[in-house]
Amino acid sequence: MKRTIAVLATLATITAAPAHADKCLSARLKAIAKKERVLLACRARVAAKGEPALYALCRQKAVDKFNAAFGKTTGCAGTLSSCEANADDCNTKVTAQLPDAGPSQCEFARLMAAGKKASAKLGCYARAALRSVPVDGVCLARATSRFNVAWAKTSGCSGVQEIVEDTVDAECVGDLVTTDGSGNVTDICHGPTSSTTSTTAAATTTTTTTPVCNCCSKTTLKFTSTIGGVGDCGDIRPGGCAAFNSGGAAGTPCTDNVPCGGGTCMKDITCGGLYFGGGIEGVPLPATPPDMGQNVTRITGCNSATGAFNLTNTTITDTGSLLTCTSGPGAGSGICSAGNCTQGGANGGHACTSNAQCGCLFGAPVPLPNPNSPSTSACLINSVTTNAAGTGSCGGSIANLALPINSEVYLTGDGMPKRCNAASGTNQGRQCLNNGNCPGGACVTDSAIQPCPICNETTGLCNGGADDGLPCTPGTSGSGVLGPGFPTSHDCRPNPPSSGGVAMGFNFTTGTQTKVSANLGPQPGQQAVFTGCGGCATTAGAFEGPPTHSCNSNSDCTNGSFTVCRQRANGAFANPIATSITATGSPAACLADGAPHAATLASVICVPHTGSIFYPDSPWDVPGPGAITMPEVLQAQ
């Protein structure tokens, strides 16, 4: 994948117009970025001390420095007057959202965070212009992440995070920079938004009207999972060597892989990764969430003045498919009848024992190969358990999207240790015992672990599982993109029975979510228990439930001998010394045009124990924390 990105970036550089490689344009963007940051810092100092008189001199210094920097550039887009007007407009619009006169350290911090975000994002575009490359999405996401972290440390003053965030993106960045379809900078400084002037005998009044991103004519918001998650979308702190591949070095503090004895330093949340479990989790992480999944929500209560809206669920009737709706079990999705869900893929619904397994499906089946213990490799079928609900903004941010799912665990091990080779015609890729199962070809060992059935990309038939040999449509990209466990499809169901379901309480955001741990006592698994991720257990380590009796302290555990609040093991994500988890998403652009816009959804959760005799808690090391970051395309329709 990294090689693909590098090739695309190279092609973009070769084919871009010469105007894109523009030192002048880059320098002007840097000057504007600095002016916006400094002007908002001036406002921040006023808010901190409650002294408005401080602003004029501070502003004049910013203007003088901007004019001097701009004057050194010639021969590119953007005039001094229009760029200056844009920077001033940014200052006015953001300050209007953060009007606390002070003294207020909270308002000081929020204004500073807004200025730094605007400056950082314009800096991303400046570097892109200088290098003749598309703007770096990771750079933009990092600016948003830092803003979210800074905002999270404030409380008790004016300002709504989502609105301030959208204002910065629209007025301080979006009104300043124009890019082509590939993300190359083509123009800057369009001037501020339109003004109307009215005159009376007493005075002349000018009112500036800001066109808010208004998507209120749209009725649905579609989320499509994609590939391309690269870089760092969060942190695991402090970094520690992974239990799943570092041997005796597991838990050694680290900032890179060097001290991990050939293993992995678990210090970052990788974009596009799924994480779960405590510090001795044994499955290599992160797992890969499949791409190509689509889930549609309904837009309600949209405010055309602010762009804020609510998100609610859609039913199978609304979308026409169990693969795209967002309703829990029941009339809006499916129910369990005669051992199978009433709705599903082309070859029928998945096996079930209760309605809880039959909500709208969330993405394609997820393979979890475990090379450290192949027999505990599993295939996950994810379905919605509670109707989707949340809030967002036409500007492209999702404040929250509660979408709890049931992750049904099929303990398949390696479902296809031997498969028919390419000479086997339509039997190519199917599971086999000997050459007799592969007419014209041969039954050969497959070195990859295949926990889920495969929808064969060549034959269009299911390989393995309950629907082996039946027609299918791939539900994900293929093995060349996602690895040998793909493509999976709900047309190709794993063999029943399942080993039970695990509740994943996802609450997605394009912002930042964090969990920290606490020391709850002297018992094993009590020294680093993440908020809400403990389970009531006996002193011998047997957990109450299922369902897990979640707890934050021993005082929450009052049922019989289950008196200890603990995780199965301290830490998080195979890092035994982790005490903090942060996952950061990134918002899309304005959704009003009805076009697809890239974003990243993030969620930090708690994963309960399974309580299953067929699939013990040890491979996943649960109960414990979980986290996911998902590259998505958002489209209002």
Write the layout of secondary structure elements.
Elements: H1 2-15, H2 23-49, H3 54-71, H4 80-97, H5 105-131, H6 137-152, H7 161-174, E1 177-179, E2 185-188, E3 195-199, E4 204-208, E5 220-225, E6 232-241, E7 265-270, E8 274-276, E9 294-300, E10 308-313, H8 316-319, E11 336-337, E12 340-341, E13 366-368, E14 378-384, E15 389-393, E16 398-402, E17 405-410, E18 418-420, E19 443-445, E20 454-455, E21 462-463, H9 479-482, E22 501-504, E23 507-508, E24 512-518, E25 529-530, E26 534-537, E27 550-551, E28 564-566, E29 580-584, E30 597-607, E31 624-636
Antiparallel strand pairs: 1-2, 3-4, 5-9, 5-31, 6-7, 6-29, 8-31, 9-10, 10-15, 11-12, 13-14, 14-17, 15-16, 16-23, 17-22, 18-19, 20-21, 24-25, 24-29, 26-27, 26-28, 30-31
Textual characterization of the structure:
- With 637 residues, the protein is an alpha+beta fold.
- Among the domains are: 2-193, no CATH class; 232-290 and 508-636, no CATH class.
- Helix content is 22%, strand content 23%.
- It is built from nine helices and 31 strands.
- It has helices at residues 2-15, 23-49, 54-71, 80-97, 105-131, 137-152, 161-174, 316-319, 479-482, and strands at 177-179, 185-188, 195-199, 204-208, 220-225, 232-241, 265-270, 274-276, 294-300, 308-313, 336-337, 340-341, 366-368, 378-384, 389-393, 398-402, 405-410, 418-420, 443-445, 454-455, 462-463, 501-504, 507-508, 512-518, 529-530, 534-537, 550-551, 564-566, 580-584, 597-607, 624-636.
- The strands form nine sheets. Strands 5, 8, 9, 10, 15, 16, 23, 30 and 31 form a nine-stranded antiparallel β-sheet that branches.
- α2 (23-49) packs antiparallel against α5 and α5 packs antiparallel against α6.
- The two termini are 30 Å apart.
- Residues 1-20 and 194-210 have low confidence and may be disordered.
